[in-house]
Amino acid sequence: MDKTLEQIRKLLLIKGFLGYETILAPVIATFYIKYVGLSFSQYAFLESLLTILIAFFEIPSGYLADRLGRKKLYLISQICYIFSKVIVCMFPSFIVAIACTTIAGVSLSMSSGNLEAVYYEAFATEDKVDDLKRLYGKAASLTFMTSIFTSIIGGYLASIQIALPILVDTTVIAIDVLFTWWLLKEAPGGQKVERFIGNFGLITFKETFGTLFRYKGLILFTLISSLVFATLRVSYTFYQPYMQSSGVELEYFGLVFAGFNIVSAAFSFLNNKLINSFSSEKK
């Protein structure tokens, strides 16, 4: 089992170094508007479609993972995601973009949480869950640090050819898939499948909402937090088209995104210290 944990450690650090779409992220809106030829409203529609699909397929993704195996489902979904990005590069149009976004949305939800479950099972078996939490922290810090540089690279590549960042990013994801296939060993035997539609799911659903309503102000706090997050997430979609229409050169887009990552890295570093200064109730 120690060998399995060591392989997971290597995989998490490799994933932290590679990141996920950190080269494409600084210019993704510009790619769809300038290369694919979409209007801003069409790009916003794709963003909405992607979010809805990811949310909708989260529940059946857990069921499929239990049936097919978490590692297998993750690898299949990532290959489909790569396929969706390559196709939109080859045949840029709004209709193709909708089809590829649909594939991407389903793929991202299918891969969601699968690796984390395998990691947890392996570390929990050896009673080393705290080690896994520290490892997550190291991997996240590594992602923030590397993404500062890859963001700048993404802007530079886009200034040469707008499709280059998406092609390089899909290559990075393909490397990630190969490392996952090589290093990750899933425990033998399937997990017991618990359907959401049934007594177990309904009981859990009722208990969760019962807990929410017992805490004064928690519902209001959740709604306000959700509204703030949604507003910021939508506003975030505007900055790339705004910079583009203002005549900002593409190579500077990466610098802006690198700045976002510097702020994220700083708050990630301070997060534990800030959280530990509050009582459990206030957390």
From TrEMBL:
> Which parts pass through the membrane?
12-33, 45-65, 86-110, 139-159, 166-184, 218-238, 250-270
The record describes its membrane topology as: Multi-pass membrane protein
Pfam families according to UniProt: MFS_1 (PF07690)
Q: What is this protein called?
A: MFS transporter
Spell out the InterPro entries in the cross-references.
Answer: MFS, MFS_DHA3_Transporter, MFS_dom, MFS_trans_sf, Sugar_transporter_CS
Q: Where in or outside the cell is it found?
A: Cell membrane
Sorted alphabetically, the keyword list is: Membrane, Transmembrane, Transmembrane helix
Report domain Major facilitator superfamily (MFS) profile positions: 1-283
Note the SUPFAM superfamilies from the entry: MFS general substrate transporter
